[in-house]
Write a structure and sequence with these properties.
Elements lengths: L15 E6 H12 L7 E7 L2 H5 L5 E4 L2 H4 L8 H10 L1 H8 L4 E7 L4 H15 L4 E7 L6 H17 L2 E6 H8 L5 H24 L8 H8 L3 E10 L5 H9 L14 E8 L5 H14 L5 E8 L7 E10 L4 H10 L7 H5 L11 H7 L17 H8 L3
Parallel strand pairs: 1-2, 1-4, 2-3, 4-5, 5-6, 6-7, 8-9
Antiparallel strand pairs: 7-10, 8-10
Helix pairs in contact: 1-6, 1-9, 4-6, 6-7, 7-13, 8-9, 11-12
The structure holds guanosine-5'-triphosphate (GTP) and magnesium ion.
The site of guanosine-5'-triphosphate has 28 residues, from helix 1, strand 4, helix 6 and helix 9.
Length: about 400
């Protein structure tokens, strides 16, 4: 079982730590630093590239692998990113040890994020912390090597993190339109993490009418595999079922099949006029999309000042990973028409290399001890509380 650091006798605000690893991870941290996050969220930038890290806004920063990379980045070599994380293991562990939930984010395909992120997830896991990772897959036009790097990194990550949310960058062009600027498209994808964080921080730190607490959250994300996440705002006169389905079909996510999900957490924020039938309809809609035996935990927070009619956030977890090849097929089929995304962003170009075989075998070694028992977490909080109440 996960160790809960938060102490009810003090603030009972679970501490969420977000580590952005590599260039993309630090971009996301930068973007998160510009919004109003709850005080319980701590942002940490992690990079091998000292210059780019200095330009990142965060509460803490860790330059990993100063000896390995001399502060110059990992040059698109995941084995260098991995060695950098191992060199800085102590600082990374120190940073994560008082977290209740750890979020990790990176763009897969380069050196630092791809090599270091699975290692950071492994350290977090050895600290027995719940870990959610949000990662991007490279654009098809970035070429075969980056796609292969990303695939290896993702497979490693899936073994270490509890829930992994995957955002293929190609979906950005598909969904947002080819005319959108690259920077704006990146901002949209980085916004997914922002939505997850805000939604979760608000959900688990607010005393809802029907409360979701940290244990509920942990019981859902303990289902290993891919995860999906979406937020939807009910518009005036919109059908509630349509809005809930929208939250469950985030078009920027990979091809995930919700009928394979093992668990979901649904957080509803509504005005005090919400009807019992509406609340039931939300639950029924989520249940319909998931297997009949999936664990679904639904919380409700009443907010009289809510701008929209109603807000629904869904996180579905424990989704089988068979669709990985489909996500990567476009990139893997492409010839070596490698275009460095950094050229678009006016960053120095990086070289492209696959994972070394010896790194692959090192990375696939399973961490030694990792046991958690979620049986005691299967009962939603409000039912547990009802059981505890004297009649
Ligand atoms: N969605 C999104 N993707 C990004 C962003 N920045 C980079 N990427 C993607 O992430 C991949 C990895 O790029 P970086 O994060 O810059 O690489 P890195 O981890 O720093 O690796 P090295 O620079 O080689 O050490 C790229 O191939 C892009 O596909 C971003 O801000 N948003
Ligand atoms: Mg970099």
């Amino acid at each position: 079982m996960f160790e809960l650091i938060s102490d009810d006798s003090t603030t009972s605000m679970p501490k969420l730590i977000v580590l952005g690893v590599g260039g993309c991870g630090c971009n996301t941290i930068n973007q998160l630093s510009q919004i109003n996050l709850p005080a319980s969220v701590e942002l940490v930038s992690v990079n091998t590239d000292a210059q780019s890290m200095a330009a990142t806004n965060s509460h803490f920063s860790i330059q990993i692998g100063p000896k390995t990379t001399k502060g110059l980045g990992a040059g698109a070599k995941p084995d260098v990113g991995c060695a950098a994380a191992l060199e800085s293991q102590e600082s990374l562990i120190h940073q994560m040890q008082d977290a209740d939930i750890i979020f990790l984010t990176a763009g897969l395909g380069g050196g630092t994020g791809t090599g270091a992120l699975p290692q950071v997830a492994r350290f977090a896991r050895e600290l027995v912390k719940p870990v959610i990772a949000v990662v991007t897959l490279p654009f098809g036009f970035e070429g075969h090597h980056r796609a292969a790097n990303a695939e290896a990194g993702l497979n490693e990550l899936l073994q270490c993190a509890n829930a992994v949310i995957v955002l293929p960058n190609d979906k950005l062009a598909e969904v947002l339109g080819a005319k959108m600027t690259l920077l704006n498209a990146f901002n949209e994808s980085n916004k997914i993490l922002q939505d997850v964080l805000l939604g979760l921080a608000n959900t688990i730190s607010q005393a809802g009418l029907i409360n979701i607490d940290l244990n509920d959250f942990i019981s859902v994300i303990s289902r290993k595999g891919r995860a999906a996440m979406g937020v939807s705002h009910l518009k005036k006169d919109e059908d509630l079922v349509t809005a809930v389905k929208r939250a469950m079909q985030n078009p920027l996510l990979d091809n995930i099949d919700l009928s394979q999900a093992q668990a979901a957490i649904v957080s509803v924020v509504a005005k005090d006029t919400i009807e019992l039938s509406q609340y039931n309809q939300i639950g029924a809609t989520v249940h319909q999309q998931l297997p009949h035996d999936a664990l679904v935990i639904i919380g409700l927070t009443v907010d009289a000042n809510l701008e929209s009619e109603l807000e629904v956030m869904v996180i579905a977890t424990g989704i089988a990973t068979k669709l990985l090849e489909e996500d990567l097929s476009a990139s893997l089929q492409s010839e070596d028409n490698y275009i460095n995304v950094h050229d678009f962003l006016k960053h120095p170009s990086a070289l492209n290399q696959g994972l070394k075989p010896e790194l692959k075998s090192e990375l696939t070694q399973k961490p030694s001890q990792y046991h958690h028992d979620v049986n005691d977490l299967q009962i939603p909080t409000y039912l547990r509380y009802q059981k505890q109440q004297p009649h």
